[in-house]
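Subgroup meeting minutes
Present: P.N., E.W., G.H.
Scribe: E.W.

1. P.N. recapped why we're keeping a running log of single-chain structure predictions: easier to compare across weeks, and new members can see raw inputs and outputs side by side.
2. G.H. added today's entry (735 aa).
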Amino acid sequence: SLYVSEYFSQSAQKLSFYSWYGNAKLFHFRVPEDTVLLRWLLQASRGKGPECTNMEITVHFRYGAPPVINPLGTRFPANATVRPSYSISITLSSAVQNTTFVNVTTPAAGDWFIAAHLPEAAGRIEVKGFSTPCPYMFQADMFVLRLADMPVLEPGVVMPQTVVSPAKPLHVKVFVPKHAAGMQFELRNCLTSEQKACAVRVVLGSITLPQSFQRIITCVGKVNCSLALDSPPWEKWLQIMVESLGATNASVSVEMLAFFTACRPGSTSSFLNFSSLNQSQTGPRPGSTGPAGSSSLSTGEAPRNASDQRSFCLRSQPVVREDLDVVSVRYRLLNGPSVPVNSLSPTLLLLNLNTGMDSGGSLVVSLLLNKTSVSLANATVAACMSAASPVLSLNATRNCSTAFFQGYPLSLSTSSAEATLIVLYPQTDDWFLSLQLICPKGQGECNAAEAKVTVFAYLTPCFNDCGPYGQCSLLRRHGYLYAACSCKAGWGGWSCTDDTKAQSVGAQNLATLLLTLSNLMFLPAIAVAVYRYYLVEASVYTYTMFFSTFYHACDQPGVAVMCIMDYDTLQYCDFLGSVVSIWVTILCMSRVKKILKYVLFLLGTLLIAMSLQLDRRGVWNMMGPCLFALVIMIAAWVYHGVKRRHCYPSSWKRWVFYLLPGITLAFIAISVYAFMETNENYYYTHSIWHVLVACSVAFLLPPRDKHKKPWAWSQKLTCRYQICQNDREELYAVT
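Output recorded in log:
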């Protein structure tokens, strides 16, 4: 045999602490056909700084779709199907780098996904630039070994083969045709080189994670062995591996035979059904194959009598796939949303999810039983959702499983007429919905009965759009798109339906009131600025108070939300007003000449606006203007002190009752903002930040110029004429 090795690599990604699915870093690979060995090379590394500690990285694997994970232990939405993912842990302790190998023999061909993340996030809000987080990097590489000339086992044809040694197993493959109801595999004349009964192990199927449904035959001391498979995967290559369990150097000769039992499909579609499509829809060409392989064009209605129905093993309902948007598909039944279901053969619907871009959403299937259509009160409609091949024997087994897939069962009755199934991240494949009428006293009781079931099926990025307390985000890894929910207000879970830690409506209203009304503490600062003739500064404080109030009113999750304009605009104006308020306050304290002060006001505001547009959350957007303004203020104070030959400001009362309290409040505010805020305490710690900053501004504003008279409205309103004041004297005023 000729083996070909291939190597696939992707760039490393920086890992994040887990709080929602968007924190998990996704890797997408495609395993080629005829692969007999798959080896993952997982490389994890961390930085060398003192902030880097021991860390455990969790890596999840899944075939066909991104892994469904739940590191936080939250609840999934009702009716959602959840199967635990296959995961491993990689520990970074004393070593800076860790290399781990994961081997998979006879993997399934197609899409494979790896998701990696760090432990749960601490919830602390870190200001960008105040601390340097430790970088944890992860890279996944894939090495495959595939057989270039894998022998093909033709149905009904005996194939003689030889297993050379236990170290070299035999690999063959057989193609499963469409509408195959079953497969019979036989191993004949299994003899060793000494003409004795062989000891071999036969593995049918490929490994798929997190669950693998390989079928294994252990043939020891027998010449002939066989295995029957129900509902093998349609239109796929089925890999068969035979390995010897005997002596090291003993060869084994075998004969293999595979044959299929066909399923004759019936059709209920007619040419007139295409008139139900919108004019914008284009139906299949006449004579083309329908969704389930049956002819979409027939001369009349499908046979309705029982004798004709018994000759069919299934009844196919034509389904049209309608692509709406990214990871958004609606399935329309040509014969209407209601489908007939009887007991003689299952009714089959094909839901096509094999484009390679459909596995990043949620498949929702809703069934509604028309109670008036069921003549037998104790009859039940059994339904099964499966991938790759349909379940064709619901009336006998009702276990909703095929040869290599465990399906999702549903049940309808007159007492429970509704059923919903949510498949999170459905694997890339053809999905089949099988429905059949079942009677408790036997199928003979149901021969003449028929039920009407309304079927609604669609693919959506996020189920229920993540609800009122979540936001559906579309994520991307190279060219692959997938969706996930980001929850707010303490809600959690895959679709933000877990209210274990949810905030009550009262708590949400309290948080909104604290974050908005705390901005009213700028009113004393505005009043002081107006009283001391600092009208430009008062205008800036008013601007900051207004936009900070309505930004936090719009930023709240849940029901206590009010947005007067676009969220991004409110956020930008809030950040701009906050930084400019600090800028103008420190420049006002420097007591430079008015012309210079106003030039610095305008120039600094323009530069701050530019820097915020470049990086809105950067710490230097606030620290840069503050430090530069402090340099100007210190230089001006030194100049005034040298010129007057004593400390500036000269009054000890000014230092004790105004400057020191204002500076203390400012330092406390910066400490709360930079080191104490978390997701849980944000609403009151950030409110404290508002109060402290506003109070510090009121303390730090300098007194008005000595030549300025206080506001005297009565004097200004008694006479309509006013003598102009010569303002040139302020050029020589000593302050």
